[in-house]
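Re: your question from the hallway

Yes, I did run it. Sequences:
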Amino acid sequence: MVKKAILLICDGLGDRPIKEFGNLTPLEAAKTPNIDKFAKAAETGVMYTLGRGVTPGSDVAHMALFGYNPYEYYRGRGPIEACGIGIKLEHGDVAFRGNLGTVNTDGLIIDRRAGRITDVKELCEAVDGIEINGIKFIVKAGTAHRAVVVMRGKGLSSNISSIDPKAENAKVKTCVPLDDTPEAKFTAETLNQFTEKSRTILSKHPFNQEREKNGDLVGNIILLRGAGQYEHLQTFYEKYGLKGACVAGGGLYKGIASMFGMDVVDVEGATALPNTNVRNKFSKAVELINGDYDFVFIHVKPTDSLAEDKKPNEKRAFVEKIDDAFAIFNQLNDDTLLVVTADHSTPCEMGRHSADSVPVMFWGSSVRPDNVESFGERACSQGGLGVIEGKDLMPQIQNLLGNIPLYGA
Amino acid sequence: MVKKAILLICDGLGDRPIKEFGNLTPLEAAKTPNIDKFAKAAETGVMYTLGRGVTPGSDVAHMALFGYNPYEYYRGRGPIEACGIGIKLEHGDVAFRGNLGTVNTDGLIIDRRAGRITDVKELCEAVDGIEINGIKFIVKAGTAHRAVVVMRGKGLSSNISSIDPKAENAKVKTCVPLDDTPEAKFTAETLNQFTEKSRTILSKHPFNQEREKNGDLVGNIILLRGAGQYEHLQTFYEKYGLKGACVAGGGLYKGIASMFGMDVVDVEGATALPNTNVRNKFSKAVELINGDYDFVFIHVKPTDSLAEDKKPNEKRAFVEKIDDAFAIFNQLNDDTLLVVTADHSTPCEMGRHSADSVPVMFWGSSVRPDNVESFGERACSQGGLGVIEGKDLMPQIQNLLGNIPLYGA
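Structure:
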């Protein structure tokens, strides 16, 4: 009987027929002997992550897959990014994502990314911990020009406007409250004061003086967006009793796993780009599940990004790269359930997410295999699981692990 | 990628096994090489228009298929018939369908259809525009003995009884309020005054005097039923951003399309009867979709009416007539999605609507074909779409057209 589970999510895996592939999808057209070997012994189905007719963003799709109803719990990107960067959020915190940008003395934005500055750690540290009106500002550097800011203290609201005009040669916007509450008014005013104060500090900072000397654009303003107020969430462990780990390259997915209290495990070569080391990720997952963890979430990104770039050949090739690494799962013990699916479809003909279903397969000693012989969109539509939704995924995993309590007698 | 859609609804198409057909349904028993050619390249499924265990009327079924929840928006037949006859309803109007009948001086109904009078245009014009208690009565002739009446003005209610006893040699009923509101009381009283006044006018009308001279029954009373109060509805275009046209023979279907703001396009020979010119209708639909329209709704009626008459042979023959015309869809461009389904089942063994599911198929370049090889009740139950409901139809169309906005990020 299975006692542990690996959940592999291939972002945007589902697709539509590609004429050049004889009307097969990239997944159907790819040579996937290893995945199909597992599919033959698996129970399969198709899944509408958020129900039919909904096109899911990756953030809300993952929330649904882990059993957190996004319509109830989604608070925008700010809190997820903050979690992804390692900030321990507290109930009531308002979190933002943002960029270090360049602003001139007239308040006009010269460059929203400060000349694609590669490291903003020193600049973020210079303004980290500022307190205004009793509110503490936590500022942490992300990758390249990116940063996360968290406002912590009493009486905050996330119902405020963004200060980022999202264009160059435009004025930095004043943050305004989006409702009549004193909380929104207070938060907007306090954020405006922070923007002014941090701009003064950053403008004089030696790191920027050095950049100026070298003819580089300075990072003298923090352009914030995506405000979201964190509310305490039941952790994945509290919800399911499973000790979870996350193996991912993309910050968003690390952030979601971290927000649910999973341990995010770094893997060498996990880049979230087509060059990512899928073998290293799968090997690490097997190591973790054979070790201390009950649940390992693996995320693979390029199936989505290559489809967003409308590159079916590259998407198919990346599926074959996943298949190559898939042989590693032959090392799984008898006590491990392997679930493979996607968060949504990204048809190459569209170059963006769609509401099409995605294939799903459950493999392991406790699973009832069906007659499906390969892992693909149309093959899995004939599977024993039928048509499920994202919210059904964790209950089925918990069922196979024997973790669903009895109702009635 | 598909950008436009044709939706073909064959009324009451679904059926049950017919012993004489070797236990095939009329659709399964019919020779349909053209439809099946499309089915082979389509994604199929079965649909419960209003969910399992609900026997849908054609009006509410069509509302659900177009994404208007009938439990929320259905206001009875009156407003639909009024729209179908070309009346532009205003918010608050109370609309009725009715007949011109014959009543004697004692108020006894001699004939509910005035000797199956074939044209009531002159009679309706004679009472059109009457005003009573500040309420304007709009009266328009329908086909044969049929008419539509709309009450327009302040303070109306549709919660009133019908004056039609639905039997001959019975007294015309007095309209009474069905609740305690002043609106229902006022509407009933005003309608009774209209019935009296119109009877006086009609009785003296030269058209009726001429009929009397010829020994024909006169149309001297308007027997109203199906009161419904119109509320402003979002149009189909507002809801979906699709410019829609309707190709139908039956007044009810034109009325529904018209109520949703679609353009109703007349087609020569479209009679809603078994003699209807299906080829003309399909040709017109192709012409419209290759022209200015994003969405064309085609309705075909006799599959339902022949089953209501318990004529499986004729139903099967009519399906073959549809198949013959279906070859016209070979002219569809690559950008067009074709969806074929029914509004409900009408089993010949019952002679009326049932809650059995109906087959559905989606055909077009963006569709993932499944393994189903023919269009029939049991074949489509194996399809890739699985089991859907009427409310899922437009979202799936909008998904394939790339019109579902992203939720989340």
